[in-house]
Amino acid sequence: MKTRYQKTMSGGEAIVECMQIEGVEHVFTVPGESFLAVLDALEHQTSIRLVVNRHEGGAGFMGEGYAKASGKPGVVMATRGVGATNASIAIHTAYQDSTPLVVFLGQVQREFRGREGFQEVDFDRGFHDLAKDTIEITDARRVPELVQKAFRVAQTGRPGPVLVSLPEDMLKDEALMTFGPAAHKPKPAPSKEETDKFRELLQQSKRPVVIAGGGVQLSGAEEALRLFAEKHSIPVIAGFRRQDLIDNHHPNYVGHMGLGAARSLVKHFQEADLVIALGTRLSEATSQDYTLVGWEQSLIHIDVDPNTIGKVYAPDLGIVADLKMALEAFTEMICNQTWEEWLQTCKQSFDRIVEKPGDDSIYTSVVETLYNRLPEEALLTNDAGNYATWVNGLFRLKRPNSFIGPANGAMGYGLPAAVGAKLFAPERPVVALCGDGGFMMTMQEVETSIREDAPVICIVFNNQMYGTIRMHQEMHYPEKVIGTGLGTVDFAKMAEAMGANGYTVESGEGFRATLENALQSGKTTVIDVKCDDEPYVAYRKTIDDMRKTFRS
């Protein structure tokens, strides 16, 4: 079957042709005059849905959330420097989350470059540390080559955001274009020598542990991870905000290594004599400030990106491989032992934690209601905020691919990411969890969800403060509070003004009834949960507790 062909068309038309080759179905944007030629080409086709946002940050988060939910590259378009810088927070999120994202950025005309033209930014210099790659297309004939390269780079190795700069006049040029096949993601497998070394290190171990990161999901290896852990009876720990890699009720799942990780979990990790790191960069949060892996522990690090292996800790065995291929190979190998007793030690500690009753706060009541009432296929998105400590402590995810959260802790992420996920999976209930600070940053995308018929439920934990920062203030400068208080906002009325359902609740009982209504309505719903009178600032921790931490 022929996969290469030629067509004469404009640069703008060729951009859309490349998107169609790569199977793009949604593009998220705030329109700009710098890429009108691309918008015009989109108007003449029916396979790609253009989603128009209220802010480039919302467009970027929506594209990133869509990519996480779908496993496909998210596609975002923004105009020149002003649009690009608004989208930069989402670009940074995609970089730290290893999310495939292609961002098309309008650029000033070629003859204006270097003159500080209107809204001009040198994207290569300005975004060097935020993006996996940046590309500027100055010759329309090279559009297919460079755009298809962008899709390939965004998806292969360690995925990430690729920026494509589009000078406005180049998009109008016509040329004979040569198009190639869609990007292919290589799936390297471990060599026999590497598999034999893996078996040797594993069989020498008495207390192995798996720490699993986003690479497992990116390679579609969730089932392979479960089968590997079951066969060898090895405890599985999820990296920061990756706890949906395996059913949290599974006998091999023993916890989530993120912010505020349980002390017993950290203790067991440090007791392990072999750490098997799968598709994780062992980030600051996952590694507990880069203190988790000790010199006396053996480390096997497996990742599809050679630059990730050894970036933080030098491994005893580093394997460049697709995680699904690797785990399938390691499941097939024969070991003369399992680690059931060690697994049970770790599992019992985890069970003692999750079986403890929560605190008496409204946060506990809301999260417990979500856990008990949401259907198994529900998908949660997470913003930034201390309410997440209740989610981590009380909500055990029931299936893989049911949680989306930014590893960089970006505020404003939850709502637009939920809408992006809903556009990919309209049959699944999608719930955005937000603090009032983060929600206010992108709440205008409620209107986008209404216009695009992508109904989500957004729960706003409204404590009228930047709670995470307040917590740290009380820990380090007790009772010396500045800059963290917020004013009163009626989020329910604001939601109604944009066409959504809006509710205000002040009790657990009120939330339960409201959630049932939201699940049945089929319409975007914002639930404003009043938490401003709560003494709690984190799960089981009051502000007074934080002050005592400093004094002790």
From TrEMBL:
Q: Where is the Thiamine pyrophosphate enzyme N-terminal TPP-binding domain?
A: 9-122
Does the record's keyword annotation contain Transport?
A: no
The text of the family note is:
Belongs to the TPP enzyme family.
**Its domain of life?**
Bacteria
Which key words tag this protein in UniProt?
Answer: Thiamine pyrophosphate
Molecular function terms, GO-annotated? acetolactate synthase activity; flavin adenine dinucleotide binding; magnesium ion binding; thiamine pyrophosphate binding
What range(s) does the Thiamine pyrophosphate enzyme TPP-binding domain occupy?
383-529
- Name of this chain's protein: Acetolactate synthase
GO CC field:
acetolactate synthase complex
Q: Name one GO biological process term.
A: L-valine biosynthetic process
**Per the UniProt entry, what species is this protein from, by scientific name?**
Salicibibacter cibi
Could you tell me which Pfam families the record lists for this protein?
TPP_enzyme_C (PF02775), TPP_enzyme_M (PF00205), TPP_enzyme_N (PF02776)
- Classification via InterPro entries: DHS-like_NAD/FAD-binding_dom, THDP-binding, Thiamin_PyroP_enz_cen_dom, Thiamin_PyroP_enz_TPP-bd_dom, TPP-bd_CS, TPP_enz, TPP_enzyme_TPP-bd
Residue ranges of the Thiamine pyrophosphate enzyme central domain? 197-329
